[in-house]
Specification:
11% strand; alpha+beta
């Protein structure tokens, strides 16, 4: 067989790159050069069909369906005209990204016949004539490319779905923490005022002003959360704890705080845990006395939030609410842990431990 001249072969990769206006990967270019140089004859018609096949191989990532059709038609035409001996390797090369792209939309049962044909081709005796040999290799190559592409495509789809679920869960936690805490404080403040027998106008105005302030803060926090998700902006940290403590005190909780840690990598997780624990105090034990102790101990940061019960305590069941579960998930993602339960002397407590990895 007369091989295609080297300048024509090199023109395959260059022409395909210019025509498709894309930056092809080197494996595609090398594969196109090898297939064209080995399997195509150097007649004028063979050169044209070889250029079309090479262009399809180079463009397979951008237009896999078109590339597969072009490569298949060119290869079959060249085989019928006697200028090509490619056992559909070029078509199989283009078929792989098509299978990856359509894996999510292809039912698993559709892959069974392909697998059977491929397995049959592998175990069938190869006919002595050249055409029969190429047919068997073609079936095996196309089947392998399709099945491998489906497998890789399904793995990629599963990974994308897992990441989407992870992001949704993270957003749900943040929205619950931000909005839930703000609404809890607002409800507690309004409840305190409504429980008083005689409310003066100035007290009512002061409460309404505080409610408005908490609502504005919650709105700003939600907007900040959206900006963080879009631009990787700054997350809340230990410097935001004083404002959180002030809001809890305004809701009627007698709060005592001790914070001595400085900055560390899991400050956002610490803030959300403290925020959720205090939200539960405001919601379930209004008017209680609560103590928050945050400090470094034995290579980790410990957080202890205790209340004396007040009007009631949070149930100690692990499945009692999204807030407690969210705290545990946040701590686990940071390499720490959270425990909670009723205190023997009355009230409720939450204890968290976070590692000092990346400590400044």
């Amino acid at each position: 067989m007369h091989l295609v001249p080297l300048d024509c072969v090199c023109g395959v990769a260059y022409g395909a790159t210019v025509t498709n206006r894309m930056r092809a990967s080197w494996p595609d270019i090398v594969a196109a050069i090898v297939v064209v140089a080995v399997f195509w004859a150097g007649s004028p018609l063979g050169v044209v069909l070889a250029l079309a096949t090479g262009a399809a191989m180079v463009a397979r990532r951008r237009a896999p369906l078109t590339a597969t059709l072009v490569a298949g038609v060119a290869t079959l035409t060249g085989t019928l005209l006697g200028v090509c001996q490619d056992p559909m390797l070029a078509t199989a090369w283009c078929l792989y990204p098509l299978a990856v792209e359509r894996a999510a939309r292809t039912r698993l049962v559709a892959a069974v016949p392909v697998g059977l044909f491929g397995a049959l081709a592998l175990v069938t005796g190869v006919p002595e004539d050249g055409l029969g040999e190429r047919l068997v290799v073609a079936v095996a190559a196309l089947s392998a490319a399709w099945l491998l592409g489906l497998a890789v495509g399904r793995q990629m789809a599963a990974a994308r779905e897992a990441e989407r679920a992870r992001v949704q869960l993270a957003v749900a936690r943040d929205v619950h923490d931000v909005v839930g805490h703000a609404l809890g404080v607002i409800v507690a403040e309004a409840g305190v005022v409504l429980s008083l027998p005689d409310v003066r106008e100035d007290e009512l105005r002061e409460t309404l002003t505080a409610v408005e302030c908490h609502a504005r803060t919650a709105l700003a926090d939600v907007q900040g959360l959206v900006r963080t998700l879009r631009t990787d902006g700054a997350a809340p940290g230990t410097e935001d704890l004083p404002a959180l403590f002030a809001a809890v005190r305004a809701a009627g909780v007698r709060l005592e705080t001790t914070v001595d840690i400085g900055e560390f990598d899991h400050a956002a997780t610490l803030f959300r845990i403290v925020q959720e624990a205090l939200h539960n105090v405001v919601r379930h034990a209004p008017g209680t006395t609560c103590a928050v102790d945050v400090r470094r101990e034995k290579g980790e940061v410990t957080v202890l939030i205790r209340d004396d019960g007040g009007a009631g305590a949070v149930p100690a069941s692990p499945g009692s609410g999204l807030g407690l579960t969210g705290m545990r998930e946040r701590a686990r993602l940071a390499g720490g842990s959270v425990t909670w339960g009723a205190r023997p002397e009355g009230g409720f407590q939450v204890r968290a431990s976070l590692p000092l990895a990346g400590d400044r």
